[in-house]
Amino acid sequence: MQIILMHSRFTQAKSVTLSSRHVIFGLFSFLLIITLCAAMMAALTLRLASADLPVLRDLVPVATAEVSNKDKYMKENLAAMAAKLGEMQAQLIRLDALGERVQGLAGVKPEEFNFKELPGRGGPEVTSQPAKELNMEEFQAALDAMSRDVEHRSDYMNVVETKLMGFKVQSKLLPTIQPVNVAYNASGFGWRLDPFSGRSAFHEGIDFSSPTGTPIVAAAGGVVVAAEYHPQFGNMVEIDHGGEIMTRYAHSSKVYVKLGDIVKRGQHIADIGSTGRSTGAHLHFEVHVKGVPQNPHKFLSAGANQANLAALGQK
Predict the structure, then answer these.
(1) Over the chain (315 residues), what is each successive 10-residue block's mean pLDDT?
(2) Nearest to residue 194, comparing CAs of 293, 274, 252, 279?
(3) CB count in 10 Å sphere of residue 204
C-alpha cells in the first residue's frame, strides 16, 4: 500500500509505502489501545462505586431511581393486596358458615340453594366499546370496595340469623303442641252448663278426656311457677313461658315437676287424673296471655298447621 502526502510546505509530494505487515501491526495496536482504555474505565467505575462518593451519586441517572421507586411501590401494593385478599377469604368462609346456619333456620334445603356453589353468569360480549384494563390504583379501590361489601353482607346476615333464632326460640316458647296425645272431646273453651251446678258458666280452658295415668307433656318450654294441690283444679301445674304467657294443667293424678324447674317442650310433667272439682279422669288445659284466658285451640291449631307444613317441605 502506498500513501501519498501533499502539503503547501512540501516542495514536492511525498509518498509512504506500507506493507501488509505494517497494516496488521497498526490494527493490532489500535485494538489494544481501545481494550486498555475500556479496562481503565471499568476499574475506575468500580472504585468510585465502592467509595460511595456524592459526586458519583449525582452522576447516577434519574431513570434508575424511578425504576427502584416503582419496584418498591409495586411490592408494597402487592403485599397490601395479598393481606386484603387473605382477610376476604376468611370473611367468605365465615359468610358461608353463617349462610348455612341461616339456611337451616329458614328451612331452605341445601339442594335449593348452596352457598358454596358459584352462581351462573353470562351475557353477550360487548364490542362497541374497547375493553379497559385496570391500573394498580383502580384494582386496589375495587378490592377495598369488595371487602366492604362482604363485611356489610356479613353484618346483615348476622342480623337475619339473630332475628330467625329469636323467632325460632319464641315459637318454641308458644304452647303449640298438644299436652295429651288424644283429641279433646269433653268441654271446649267458652260458655257452658256447669256439670255440678247446672248453671251457665265460663269454661277458661279445654278438656282432654283420657284414662287415669295418661302422660301429660308441656305444651312449650318454660319455668314451673306452680306445682301444688288446688281445691278447684286438684293436682295442678303452671308453667311460665315468657312473654307473659302461662299454661295450666289441672286434675292430675301425679305431678313429676316442682316449683322452679325448667321444662322442655314435650317433657312429661304429670299424669291424667280426676283430682279437685272433677267428674272423671281428664286434663283441664288453659292458656293465659297477660293474665287473660285464651282459647288453647288456636295455639294448638297453629302448631298442627306448622307441623303439616314442615312435613310437606321434607317430601
Answers:
(1) 62 65 74 84 71 53 63 74 74 73 65 63 67 71 78 73 65 86 78 85 92 96 96 96 94 96 96 95 95 92 72 54
(2) 279
(3) 17
Q: How far apart are CA 288 and CA 265, in angstroms?
A: 17
Residue 249 one-letter amino acid: Y
Question: For the whole model, what pTM was predicted?
Answer: 0.52
E strand or H helix that includes residue 86: helix 62-106
**CB neighbour list of residue 253: distance below 8 Å, 6 or more residues apart:** 212, 213, 235, 270, 271, 272, 273, 274, 275, 281
Rg (CA), the chain: 48
Residue 277 and residue 231 in contact, taking contact as beta carbons nearer than 8 Å: yes
Report the candidate in 185, 188, 228, 225 with the shortest Cα–Cα distance to residue 209: 185
Distance between alpha carbon 127 and the CA centroid of its chain, in Å?
38
Helix, strand, coil percent values for the chain (each to nearest 5): 45, 25, 35
Amino acid at 157: M
How far is it, in rounded angstroms, from Cα 220 to Cα 176? 7
Using an 8 Å Cβ cutoff, are 248 and 286 in contact? Answer: yes
Nearest to 247 by CA among 229, 231, 234, 265: 265
Amino acid at 71: D
Count Cα neighbours of 113 within 13 Å in the Cβ-side half-sphere.
11
Phi and psi at 162, nearest 5°, equal -60, -45
Q: Whole-angstrom Cα distance, residue 219 to residue 175?
A: 5
The whole-angstrom separation of Cα 163 and Cα 178 is 26
Phi, psi of 30 (to 5 degrees): -65, -45
Is residue 235 within 8 A of residue 252, CB to CB? The reply is yes
Fill in the amino acid letter for 53: L
